[in-house]
Amino acid sequence: AGALLSDLRPLDILAEVVPPAGSPSGVRTLQAHGVRGLQLSAAAAQAMSFPASRIFFRCDLFPQEFSIVVTLKAPNLPPKVKTDLKVTLGSRPPCTKVEDAQFWFDASRKGLYLCVGNEWVSVLAARERLDYVQQHQDLFTSSETLGIEVFRIPGVGLFAATANRKATSAIYKWTDGKFASFQSLRTHQAQSWRHFTIGRKIFLAVANFEPNEKGQEFSVIYKWSHRKLKFAPYQRIATHSARDWEAFEVHGEHFLAVANHREGDNHNIDSVIYKWNPATRLFETNQTIPTSGAYDWEFFTVGPYSFLAVANTFNGTSTRVHSRLYVWLLGSFQLFQSFPTFGAADWEVFHIGERIFLAVANSHSYDTEVQVQNDSYVINSVIYELNVTAQTFVKFQDIPTCSALDWEFFSVGEDYFLVVANSFDGNTFLVNSIIYRWQGYEGFVAVHSLPTFGCRDWEAFNTSAGSYLIYSSAKEPLSRVLRLRTR
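Given the sequence above, the corresponding C-alpha coordinates read:
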Protein backbone atom coordinates (compact mmCIF):
# COMPACT_ATOMS: atom_id res chain seq x y z
CA ALA A 1 0.00 0.00 0.00
CA GLY A 2 2.89 2.36 0.82
CA ALA A 3 4.41 1.86 -2.63
CA LEU A 4 1.05 2.41 -4.25
CA LEU A 5 0.50 5.70 -2.43
CA SER A 6 3.86 6.99 -3.62
CA ASP A 7 3.02 6.06 -7.19
CA LEU A 8 -0.15 8.17 -7.48
CA ARG A 9 -0.60 11.22 -9.64
CA PRO A 10 -3.19 13.94 -8.85
CA LEU A 11 -6.15 13.87 -11.22
CA ASP A 12 -8.81 16.57 -11.40
CA ILE A 13 -11.72 14.30 -12.24
CA LEU A 14 -14.34 16.88 -11.21
CA ALA A 15 -13.06 19.29 -13.85
CA GLU A 16 -13.85 16.69 -16.49
CA VAL A 17 -17.25 15.71 -15.06
CA VAL A 18 -18.67 19.09 -14.05
CA PRO A 19 -19.97 20.58 -17.30
CA PRO A 20 -19.87 24.19 -18.44
CA ALA A 21 -22.61 26.53 -17.19
CA GLY A 22 -26.05 25.62 -18.48
CA SER A 23 -25.29 21.94 -19.09
CA PRO A 24 -26.64 19.12 -16.85
CA SER A 25 -24.30 18.14 -14.03
CA GLY A 26 -22.64 14.74 -13.80
CA VAL A 27 -22.28 14.89 -10.00
CA ARG A 28 -24.89 13.73 -7.50
CA THR A 29 -24.86 12.53 -3.89
CA LEU A 30 -25.84 8.99 -2.93
CA GLN A 31 -26.22 7.09 0.33
CA ALA A 32 -25.84 3.31 0.54
CA HIS A 33 -25.41 1.09 3.62
CA GLY A 34 -24.99 4.13 5.86
CA VAL A 35 -22.19 5.63 3.70
CA ARG A 36 -22.72 8.89 1.83
CA GLY A 37 -20.67 9.88 -1.20
CA LEU A 38 -20.58 11.34 -4.72
CA GLN A 39 -21.49 9.58 -7.95
CA LEU A 40 -19.75 10.87 -11.04
CA SER A 41 -21.37 10.35 -14.42
CA ALA A 42 -21.27 11.88 -17.88
CA ALA A 43 -23.60 12.09 -20.85
CA ALA A 44 -21.05 10.44 -23.14
CA ALA A 45 -19.74 7.05 -22.05
CA GLN A 46 -16.14 7.89 -22.97
CA ALA A 47 -16.18 11.05 -20.82
CA MET A 48 -15.49 9.05 -17.66
CA SER A 49 -12.92 6.80 -19.31
CA PHE A 50 -9.21 7.38 -18.92
CA PRO A 51 -6.13 5.18 -19.14
CA ALA A 52 -4.53 3.85 -15.95
CA SER A 53 -1.36 5.78 -16.74
CA ARG A 54 -3.19 9.03 -15.92
CA ILE A 55 -3.42 7.94 -12.28
CA PHE A 56 -0.69 5.35 -11.76
CA PHE A 57 2.80 5.06 -13.11
CA ARG A 58 5.02 1.98 -12.77
CA CYS A 59 1.77 0.01 -12.45
CA ASP A 60 0.89 -2.69 -14.99
CA LEU A 61 -2.52 -3.65 -13.56
CA PHE A 62 -5.40 -1.27 -12.90
CA PRO A 63 -6.85 -1.88 -9.37
CA GLN A 64 -10.42 -3.18 -9.31
CA GLU A 65 -11.37 -0.86 -6.39
CA PHE A 66 -9.73 2.30 -5.13
CA SER A 67 -10.62 5.39 -3.07
CA ILE A 68 -10.47 8.95 -4.27
CA VAL A 69 -9.33 11.64 -1.84
CA VAL A 70 -11.17 14.85 -2.65
CA THR A 71 -9.70 18.21 -1.63
CA LEU A 72 -12.18 21.08 -1.36
CA LYS A 73 -10.98 24.64 -1.71
CA ALA A 74 -12.94 27.37 0.14
CA PRO A 75 -11.45 30.78 -0.69
CA ASN A 76 -13.51 32.83 1.83
CA LEU A 77 -13.10 31.17 5.22
CA PRO A 78 -13.82 33.14 8.44
CA PRO A 79 -10.74 34.06 10.46
CA LYS A 80 -9.53 31.44 12.93
CA VAL A 81 -10.50 31.92 16.57
CA LYS A 82 -8.23 30.44 19.19
CA THR A 83 -10.25 28.40 21.69
CA ASP A 84 -8.89 26.29 24.51
CA LEU A 85 -10.57 22.95 25.10
CA LYS A 86 -10.08 20.71 28.11
CA VAL A 87 -10.92 17.02 27.85
CA THR A 88 -11.31 14.94 31.02
CA LEU A 89 -12.52 11.50 32.04
CA GLY A 90 -12.44 12.17 35.76
CA SER A 91 -13.30 15.08 38.00
CA ARG A 92 -14.58 18.44 36.81
CA PRO A 93 -11.79 20.99 36.19
CA PRO A 94 -11.84 24.38 37.96
CA CYS A 95 -13.83 27.22 36.40
CA THR A 96 -12.21 30.51 37.41
CA LYS A 97 -11.24 33.76 35.71
CA VAL A 98 -8.28 31.91 34.18
CA GLU A 99 -10.60 29.40 32.47
CA ASP A 100 -13.26 31.97 31.52
CA ALA A 101 -14.64 31.43 27.98
CA GLN A 102 -12.85 28.07 27.72
CA PHE A 103 -14.59 24.85 26.76
CA TRP A 104 -14.51 21.59 28.66
CA PHE A 105 -15.49 18.25 27.16
CA ASP A 106 -16.46 15.63 29.72
CA ALA A 107 -15.66 12.38 27.92
CA SER A 108 -17.34 10.21 30.53
CA ARG A 109 -20.69 12.05 30.33
CA LYS A 110 -20.29 13.11 26.68
CA GLY A 111 -21.04 16.72 27.47
CA LEU A 112 -19.57 20.01 26.25
CA TYR A 113 -19.43 22.88 28.76
CA LEU A 114 -18.40 26.54 28.65
CA CYS A 115 -16.83 28.34 31.61
CA VAL A 116 -18.97 31.42 32.34
CA GLY A 117 -18.13 33.37 35.48
CA ASN A 118 -17.34 30.63 37.97
CA GLU A 119 -19.64 27.94 36.63
CA TRP A 120 -19.53 25.40 33.81
CA VAL A 121 -22.60 25.92 31.62
CA SER A 122 -23.84 23.04 29.49
CA VAL A 123 -23.54 23.79 25.78
CA LEU A 124 -24.13 20.31 24.39
CA ALA A 125 -24.88 17.32 26.57
CA ALA A 126 -25.81 13.74 25.87
CA ARG A 127 -29.07 12.52 27.34
CA GLU A 128 -28.52 11.53 30.97
CA ARG A 129 -30.14 8.43 32.44
CA LEU A 130 -30.17 7.34 36.06
CA ASP A 131 -27.90 4.31 36.46
CA TYR A 132 -27.59 3.73 40.20
CA VAL A 133 -27.67 5.49 43.58
CA GLN A 134 -24.44 5.89 45.55
CA GLN A 135 -23.94 6.85 49.19
CA HIS A 136 -22.19 10.23 49.26
CA GLN A 137 -22.24 11.59 52.83
CA ASP A 138 -23.32 10.61 56.33
CA LEU A 139 -24.66 13.81 57.87
CA PHE A 140 -24.58 13.42 61.65
CA THR A 141 -27.12 15.67 63.40
CA SER A 142 -27.62 16.74 67.02
CA SER A 143 -30.75 14.57 67.27
CA GLU A 144 -33.31 12.82 65.10
CA THR A 145 -34.33 14.85 62.05
CA LEU A 146 -38.02 15.24 61.21
CA GLY A 147 -37.66 17.36 58.09
CA ILE A 148 -35.10 18.85 55.70
CA GLU A 149 -35.30 21.95 53.52
CA VAL A 150 -32.69 22.46 50.78
CA PHE A 151 -32.44 25.99 49.37
CA ARG A 152 -30.10 28.46 47.68
CA ILE A 153 -29.15 32.00 48.61
CA PRO A 154 -27.95 33.82 45.46
CA GLY A 155 -24.29 34.72 45.65
CA VAL A 156 -23.85 32.80 48.91
CA GLY A 157 -24.45 29.13 48.21
CA LEU A 158 -26.53 26.01 48.75
CA PHE A 159 -27.93 25.20 52.21
CA ALA A 160 -29.84 22.47 54.04
CA ALA A 161 -31.88 23.21 57.17
CA THR A 162 -32.63 20.22 59.42
CA ALA A 163 -35.63 20.17 61.76
CA ASN A 164 -34.32 18.30 64.80
CA ARG A 165 -36.29 16.71 67.61
CA LYS A 166 -34.30 18.23 70.48
CA ALA A 167 -33.68 21.86 71.41
CA THR A 168 -31.35 22.81 68.55
CA SER A 169 -31.81 22.59 64.81
CA ALA A 170 -29.05 23.26 62.32
CA ILE A 171 -28.28 24.83 58.96
CA TYR A 172 -25.58 23.29 56.79
CA LYS A 173 -23.79 24.82 53.82
CA TRP A 174 -22.62 22.88 50.78
CA THR A 175 -18.83 23.20 50.93
CA ASP A 176 -16.30 21.28 48.81
CA GLY A 177 -18.93 18.81 47.69
CA LYS A 178 -20.49 18.09 51.10
CA PHE A 179 -22.73 19.69 53.71
CA ALA A 180 -20.79 21.36 56.54
CA SER A 181 -22.15 22.91 59.75
CA PHE A 182 -23.04 26.59 59.25
CA GLN A 183 -25.47 27.81 61.95
CA SER A 184 -27.46 26.47 64.91
CA LEU A 185 -30.93 27.76 65.83
CA ARG A 186 -33.04 27.26 68.95
CA THR A 187 -36.15 25.17 68.19
CA HIS A 188 -38.69 23.06 70.09
CA GLN A 189 -39.16 19.64 68.52
CA ALA A 190 -39.02 21.22 65.07
CA GLN A 191 -41.01 19.38 62.41
CA SER A 192 -40.09 21.20 59.22
CA TRP A 193 -38.51 24.31 57.67
CA ARG A 194 -39.77 26.45 54.80
CA HIS A 195 -37.56 28.80 52.78
CA PHE A 196 -39.18 31.66 50.85
CA THR A 197 -38.43 35.14 49.55
CA ILE A 198 -40.32 38.44 49.37
CA GLY A 199 -38.46 40.78 47.06
CA ARG A 200 -34.85 40.80 48.27
CA LYS A 201 -35.86 39.53 51.71
CA ILE A 202 -34.95 35.90 52.42
CA PHE A 203 -36.87 34.03 55.11
CA LEU A 204 -36.79 30.64 56.82
CA ALA A 205 -39.81 29.53 58.88
CA VAL A 206 -39.70 26.67 61.39
CA ALA A 207 -42.73 24.68 62.55
CA ASN A 208 -42.31 23.98 66.29
CA PHE A 209 -44.33 21.07 67.66
CA GLU A 210 -43.76 21.63 71.39
CA PRO A 211 -43.97 24.75 73.64
CA ASN A 212 -40.87 26.57 74.87
CA GLU A 213 -39.52 26.57 78.43
CA LYS A 214 -42.21 29.06 79.49
CA GLY A 215 -45.01 26.90 78.12
CA GLN A 216 -45.57 29.23 75.14
CA GLU A 217 -46.24 27.69 71.74
CA PHE A 218 -44.61 29.69 68.96
CA SER A 219 -43.26 28.96 65.55
CA VAL A 220 -40.61 31.37 64.32
CA ILE A 221 -39.80 33.12 61.05
CA TYR A 222 -36.10 33.90 60.59
CA LYS A 223 -34.71 36.51 58.20
CA TRP A 224 -31.37 36.37 56.40
CA SER A 225 -28.95 39.17 57.24
CA HIS A 226 -27.01 40.18 54.14
CA ARG A 227 -24.51 41.93 56.41
CA LYS A 228 -23.91 39.21 59.01
CA LEU A 229 -24.56 36.33 56.58
CA LYS A 230 -26.71 34.60 59.20
CA PHE A 231 -30.39 33.99 59.94
CA ALA A 232 -31.88 35.99 62.81
CA PRO A 233 -35.36 35.76 64.46
CA TYR A 234 -37.83 38.05 62.69
CA GLN A 235 -41.41 37.18 63.76
CA ARG A 236 -43.01 34.77 66.23
CA ILE A 237 -46.43 33.32 65.43
CA ALA A 238 -48.64 31.42 67.87
CA THR A 239 -49.21 27.87 66.57
CA HIS A 240 -50.59 24.60 67.91
CA SER A 241 -48.28 21.59 67.49
CA ALA A 242 -47.30 22.94 64.07
CA ARG A 243 -46.28 20.35 61.51
CA ASP A 244 -45.63 22.35 58.36
CA TRP A 245 -45.40 25.79 56.72
CA GLU A 246 -46.26 26.49 53.09
CA ALA A 247 -45.27 29.78 51.44
CA PHE A 248 -46.94 30.96 48.24
CA GLU A 249 -47.97 33.97 46.19
CA VAL A 250 -51.40 34.80 44.75
CA HIS A 251 -51.89 37.82 42.47
CA GLY A 252 -48.70 39.46 43.76
CA GLU A 253 -49.57 39.00 47.44
CA HIS A 254 -47.54 36.74 49.75
CA PHE A 255 -49.01 34.16 52.11
CA LEU A 256 -47.91 31.60 54.72
CA ALA A 257 -50.09 28.65 55.72
CA VAL A 258 -49.41 26.70 58.93
CA ALA A 259 -50.62 23.15 59.54
CA ASN A 260 -51.80 23.11 63.17
CA HIS A 261 -51.87 19.44 64.19
CA ARG A 262 -53.64 19.55 67.56
CA GLU A 263 -54.35 21.70 70.60
CA GLY A 264 -54.02 19.52 73.68
CA ASP A 265 -55.88 16.33 72.77
CA ASN A 266 -58.13 18.05 70.26
CA HIS A 267 -57.10 17.37 66.65
CA ASN A 268 -60.09 19.12 65.08
CA ILE A 269 -58.84 22.69 65.13
CA ASP A 270 -58.21 25.54 62.69
CA SER A 271 -55.11 25.84 60.60
CA VAL A 272 -54.29 29.40 59.61
CA ILE A 273 -53.30 31.27 56.45
CA TYR A 274 -51.30 34.44 57.08
CA LYS A 275 -50.85 37.33 54.65
CA TRP A 276 -47.83 39.60 54.36
CA ASN A 277 -48.59 43.24 55.16
CA PRO A 278 -46.13 45.44 53.23
CA ALA A 279 -46.87 48.39 55.54
CA THR A 280 -46.07 46.63 58.82
CA ARG A 281 -43.71 44.15 57.12
CA LEU A 282 -45.30 41.36 59.17
CA PHE A 283 -47.54 38.36 58.51
CA GLU A 284 -51.12 38.82 59.71
CA THR A 285 -54.02 36.37 59.98
CA ASN A 286 -55.98 36.24 56.72
CA GLN A 287 -58.09 33.05 56.82
CA THR A 288 -58.72 30.03 59.05
CA ILE A 289 -59.53 26.57 57.69
CA PRO A 290 -60.90 23.69 59.82
CA THR A 291 -58.49 20.72 59.77
CA SER A 292 -58.15 17.34 61.50
CA GLY A 293 -54.63 16.61 62.65
CA ALA A 294 -53.20 18.68 59.78
CA TYR A 295 -49.78 17.45 58.69
CA ASP A 296 -48.90 19.17 55.42
CA TRP A 297 -49.94 21.97 53.05
CA GLU A 298 -49.20 21.92 49.31
CA PHE A 299 -49.75 24.93 47.01
CA PHE A 300 -49.86 24.79 43.22
CA THR A 301 -51.37 26.56 40.23
CA VAL A 302 -53.22 25.34 37.16
CA GLY A 303 -53.41 28.07 34.57
CA PRO A 304 -54.94 31.12 36.30
CA TYR A 305 -56.21 29.09 39.27
CA SER A 306 -54.44 28.70 42.63
CA PHE A 307 -54.93 25.58 44.77
CA LEU A 308 -54.03 24.62 48.33
CA ALA A 309 -54.18 21.00 49.55
CA VAL A 310 -54.11 19.93 53.21
CA ALA A 311 -53.17 16.45 54.44
CA ASN A 312 -55.45 15.57 57.38
CA THR A 313 -54.10 12.76 59.56
CA PHE A 314 -56.38 12.05 62.54
CA ASN A 315 -59.76 13.24 63.81
CA GLY A 316 -59.41 11.93 67.36
CA THR A 317 -60.80 8.46 66.73
CA SER A 318 -59.67 7.44 63.25
CA THR A 319 -57.02 8.08 60.61
CA ARG A 320 -59.66 7.44 57.95
CA VAL A 321 -60.44 11.08 57.33
CA HIS A 322 -60.87 13.23 54.25
CA SER A 323 -58.05 15.45 53.12
CA ARG A 324 -59.13 18.59 51.28
CA LEU A 325 -58.22 20.60 48.21
CA TYR A 326 -59.13 24.30 48.15
CA VAL A 327 -59.23 26.76 45.26
CA TRP A 328 -58.72 30.54 45.47
CA LEU A 329 -61.96 32.36 44.62
CA LEU A 330 -62.92 35.98 45.34
CA GLY A 331 -60.11 36.61 47.81
CA SER A 332 -60.14 33.39 49.85
CA PHE A 333 -59.74 29.62 49.54
CA GLN A 334 -62.95 27.64 48.96
CA LEU A 335 -63.40 23.86 49.10
CA PHE A 336 -62.81 22.28 45.69
CA GLN A 337 -62.50 18.52 46.32
CA SER A 338 -62.24 15.96 49.14
CA PHE A 339 -60.12 12.80 49.09
CA PRO A 340 -60.46 9.70 51.32
CA THR A 341 -57.06 9.31 53.02
CA PHE A 342 -55.52 7.19 55.79
CA GLY A 343 -53.27 9.16 58.09
CA ALA A 344 -52.25 11.43 55.22
CA ALA A 345 -48.82 12.92 55.91
CA ASP A 346 -47.85 14.60 52.65
CA TRP A 347 -49.10 15.92 49.32
CA GLU A 348 -46.77 16.22 46.32
CA VAL A 349 -47.84 17.93 43.10
CA PHE A 350 -45.89 17.45 39.87
CA HIS A 351 -46.18 17.92 36.13
CA ILE A 352 -45.25 15.52 33.32
CA GLY A 353 -45.70 17.31 30.03
CA GLU A 354 -49.18 18.80 30.09
CA ARG A 355 -50.42 16.33 32.71
CA ILE A 356 -50.84 17.33 36.38
CA PHE A 357 -50.57 14.81 39.21
CA LEU A 358 -51.16 14.94 42.96
CA ALA A 359 -49.70 12.18 45.17
CA VAL A 360 -50.73 11.55 48.78
CA ALA A 361 -48.61 9.66 51.32
CA ASN A 362 -50.87 7.49 53.51
CA SER A 363 -49.20 6.52 56.79
CA HIS A 364 -51.63 4.47 58.87
CA SER A 365 -55.07 2.89 58.74
CA TYR A 366 -56.39 3.04 62.29
CA ASP A 367 -59.75 3.25 64.01
CA THR A 368 -60.41 3.06 67.76
CA GLU A 369 -63.29 0.68 67.05
CA VAL A 370 -61.11 -1.71 65.04
CA GLN A 371 -58.36 -3.83 66.58
CA VAL A 372 -54.93 -2.60 65.45
CA GLN A 373 -53.06 -5.00 63.18
CA ASN A 374 -49.48 -4.82 61.98
CA ASP A 375 -50.47 -4.60 58.33
CA SER A 376 -52.45 -1.41 59.00
CA TYR A 377 -49.18 0.41 58.22
CA VAL A 378 -48.72 -1.40 54.89
CA ILE A 379 -51.35 0.38 52.83
CA ASN A 380 -51.71 2.04 49.45
CA SER A 381 -50.66 5.58 48.82
CA VAL A 382 -52.42 7.14 45.85
CA ILE A 383 -51.48 9.21 42.81
CA TYR A 384 -54.29 11.33 41.37
CA GLU A 385 -54.37 13.02 37.96
CA LEU A 386 -56.27 16.16 37.04
CA ASN A 387 -59.06 15.49 34.56
CA VAL A 388 -59.37 18.89 32.93
CA THR A 389 -62.68 18.08 31.25
CA ALA A 390 -64.32 16.90 34.47
CA GLN A 391 -62.48 19.59 36.49
CA THR A 392 -61.57 17.10 39.19
CA PHE A 393 -58.68 14.89 40.27
CA VAL A 394 -59.25 11.18 39.57
CA LYS A 395 -57.31 8.19 40.87
CA PHE A 396 -54.43 7.30 38.54
CA GLN A 397 -52.41 4.71 40.47
CA ASP A 398 -52.23 2.90 43.81
CA ILE A 399 -48.74 2.26 45.18
CA PRO A 400 -48.19 -0.06 48.21
CA THR A 401 -46.23 1.79 50.92
CA CYS A 402 -45.09 1.21 54.50
CA SER A 403 -46.33 4.09 56.65
CA ALA A 404 -45.37 6.59 53.96
CA LEU A 405 -44.52 10.06 55.27
CA ASP A 406 -43.23 11.90 52.20
CA TRP A 407 -43.13 11.92 48.40
CA GLU A 408 -40.45 13.72 46.41
CA PHE A 409 -40.61 14.22 42.64
CA PHE A 410 -37.44 14.79 40.60
CA SER A 411 -36.06 14.33 37.11
CA VAL A 412 -32.80 13.10 35.60
CA GLY A 413 -32.32 14.00 31.96
CA GLU A 414 -35.66 13.32 30.30
CA ASP A 415 -36.78 10.76 32.90
CA TYR A 416 -39.16 11.46 35.81
CA PHE A 417 -39.04 9.85 39.25
CA LEU A 418 -40.89 9.66 42.57
CA VAL A 419 -39.20 8.57 45.79
CA VAL A 420 -41.30 7.61 48.81
CA ALA A 421 -40.27 7.81 52.48
CA ASN A 422 -41.30 4.42 53.88
CA SER A 423 -40.93 4.61 57.68
CA PHE A 424 -42.48 1.55 59.39
CA ASP A 425 -44.00 -1.79 58.34
CA GLY A 426 -45.65 -2.67 61.64
CA ASN A 427 -42.61 -4.53 62.96
CA THR A 428 -39.50 -2.52 62.20
CA PHE A 429 -38.38 0.97 61.18
CA LEU A 430 -35.69 -0.60 58.99
CA VAL A 431 -37.60 -0.64 55.70
CA ASN A 432 -36.65 0.20 52.15
CA SER A 433 -37.69 3.46 50.57
CA ILE A 434 -38.41 3.09 46.86
CA ILE A 435 -37.61 5.15 43.76
CA TYR A 436 -40.26 4.84 41.04
CA ARG A 437 -39.68 5.81 37.41
CA TRP A 438 -42.36 7.19 35.12
CA GLN A 439 -42.97 4.74 32.28
CA GLY A 440 -45.89 6.30 30.48
CA TYR A 441 -48.78 3.90 30.03
CA GLU A 442 -47.41 1.69 32.84
CA GLY A 443 -47.42 4.61 35.28
CA PHE A 444 -44.72 4.63 37.96
CA VAL A 445 -42.62 1.46 38.21
CA ALA A 446 -40.22 0.62 41.07
CA VAL A 447 -36.58 0.80 39.91
CA HIS A 448 -34.44 1.30 43.04
CA SER A 449 -34.81 0.04 46.60
CA LEU A 450 -32.94 2.13 49.19
CA PRO A 451 -32.33 0.88 52.77
CA THR A 452 -33.57 3.53 55.24
CA PHE A 453 -34.24 3.62 58.98
CA GLY A 454 -37.31 5.51 60.15
CA CYS A 455 -37.23 7.61 56.98
CA ARG A 456 -39.16 10.86 57.36
CA ASP A 457 -38.32 13.25 54.53
CA TRP A 458 -36.67 13.28 51.07
CA GLU A 459 -35.23 16.28 49.22
CA ALA A 460 -33.73 16.31 45.72
CA PHE A 461 -31.16 18.91 44.70
CA ASN A 462 -28.59 19.64 42.02
CA THR A 463 -25.10 21.12 42.08
CA SER A 464 -22.59 21.77 39.32
CA ALA A 465 -21.12 18.34 40.12
CA GLY A 466 -24.34 16.37 39.70
CA SER A 467 -27.71 15.37 41.18
CA TYR A 468 -28.36 14.24 44.75
CA LEU A 469 -31.00 13.04 47.21
CA ILE A 470 -30.93 13.59 50.96
CA TYR A 471 -33.16 11.84 53.47
CA SER A 472 -33.77 12.37 57.18
CA SER A 473 -34.35 9.77 59.88
CA ALA A 474 -36.84 10.28 62.71
CA LYS A 475 -35.25 7.38 64.61
CA GLU A 476 -31.52 8.15 64.64
CA PRO A 477 -29.34 11.32 64.55
CA LEU A 478 -28.15 10.59 61.04
CA SER A 479 -29.24 11.87 57.65
CA ARG A 480 -27.74 10.60 54.41
CA VAL A 481 -26.81 12.29 51.14
CA LEU A 482 -27.03 10.01 48.10
CA ARG A 483 -25.60 10.76 44.68
CA LEU A 484 -27.52 9.90 41.53
CA ARG A 485 -25.06 8.30 39.13
CA THR A 486 -25.95 8.61 35.46
CA ARG A 487 -24.85 6.93 32.27
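The radius of gyration is 32 Å. Try to locate this feature in the C-alpha coordinate string yourself.
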